Amino acid sequence: MPLIAPPALKPGDTVAAISLSSGAAAAFPHRYEAGKRQLAETFGLNVVETPNALRDNAWLHDNPQARADDLHWALTNDDVAGVISTLGGDESIRTVRYLDLDVIRDHPKVFMGFSDSTVQHLVNRKAGIVSFHGPSLLAGFAENGGIHPYVEAAVRAAVFTPEPFELSAASEWTEEFLDWARPELQARRRRWWPTPGWQWLSGTDAVTGELIGGNAEILEMSKGTSIWPDDEAWDGAIVLLETSEEVPPPLNVKHWLRNYLASGVLERIGALLVARPLGYSQQQTFELWDIVQAVLAEAGRPGLPVVANVDYGHTSPAGVLPLGCRARVDPVHRTVTVVDAGVSAPV
């Protein structure tokens, strides 16, 4: 059964900033304000904070139910049209026991974030609502020197436009980090380098399936829990896997993939999207690609369409994937198209 597409955002709407995990918004207030300002200037959105969005790490750690209550507050607030994560972390899994799937299901709204927000994406999927793997308020919207045009275009296509759209590779990327603790660096643009685009590792036939996945480490944390997708959810799925700033070695990814092999997931999926890994050397990147292909061969799926170095997750700039929508991966024409609109007509 198709997931419910929440209403599209439009200029003048109010979105709620939420901290389901990290207290970074409290630690870097100038960065948070830059993200709010960018959402207002670029998209015409008003930003309000959920009741505990600006709490620090210690308070948020000690109050997982309050973090869950913040989501319920945003969803049931008629003045709020969407919810955007302030940042990731590793705490969202502790909110799951307090979340009400009926509230989420009965109040479909745009939810956007990446990294630890993978937990909320799985929760939304369990509730039957499309959600958006995309930039967070502090990482992406608060980009140094202003939002990147690639990110702006991706956000507009995914959550402002109730139509299918084609995904595209960014023309440039960066791993330069400018210290968030230095407000004077906020206006300085990072150094960017040209990118050769996505790498098509395998596949000969086009496939269409539902987008699912997210951050690989958080997916590991979620296995065996109430929010882990049923076996049938993986049938023909287009799976995104992206790694975090913790830079897990390729060998770790091999172990995780073999878990997907042992559990039968790799036998079911339709295609794999492997994000550009943050912090990897070129040698590590090639090793990762070899590992992906080797484990797929072990699964008897050497011809599975695999697209690597896609611009999602912990890479800059990063696009937006409407998780729960169908996408078509075409290795012949080397295109990835979102077949279903991620949002419905705005209200």
Helix content: 25-40%
Can you count the beta strands?
16
CATH architecture: 3-Layer(aba) Sandwich
Order of secondary-structure elements: EHHEHHEHEHEHEEEEEHEHHEHEEEE
Would you kindly provide a written description of the structure presented here, covering whatever features stand out?
The chain has 347 residues and is an alpha/beta fold. Helices cover 31% and strands 19% of the residues. It has one domain: 3-Layer(aba) Sandwich (Rossmann fold), CATH 3.40.50.10740. It has helices at residues 24-27, 29-43, 57-62, 64-76, 101-106, 118-127, 149-160, 216-222, 250-262, 265-268, 282-298, and strands spanning 14-18, 46-49, 82-85, 110-113, 131-133, 165-167, 172-173, 193-194, 199-202, 207-215, 238-242, 271-275, 306-310, 321-323, 326-330, 335-338. The strands form 3 sheets. An 8-stranded mixed beta sheet has the order 6-16-15-10-11-12-13-9. A 6-stranded mixed beta sheet has the order 2-1-3-4-5-14, sandwiched between helices. 48% of the residues are buried.
List keywords for this structure.
11 helices; six-stranded mixed β-sheet; 16 strands; alpha/beta
Task: Give a short synopsis of this structure.
The protein is α/β, with parallel strands linked by helices and 347 residues long. Helix content is 31%, strand content 19%. The protein has 11 helices and 16 strands.
List the helices and strands and how they pair.
Blueprint: E1 14-18, H1 24-27, H2 29-43, E2 46-49, H3 57-62, H4 64-76, E3 82-85, H5 101-106, E4 110-113, H6 118-127, E5 131-133, H7 149-160, E6 165-167, E7 172-173, E8 193-194, E9 199-202, E10 207-215, H8 216-222, E11 238-242, H9 250-262, H10 265-268, E12 271-275, H11 282-298, E13 306-310, E14 321-323, E15 326-330, E16 335-338
Parallel strand pairs: 1-2, 1-3, 3-4, 4-5, 10-11, 11-12, 12-13
Antiparallel strand pairs: 5-14, 6-16, 7-8, 9-13, 10-15, 15-16
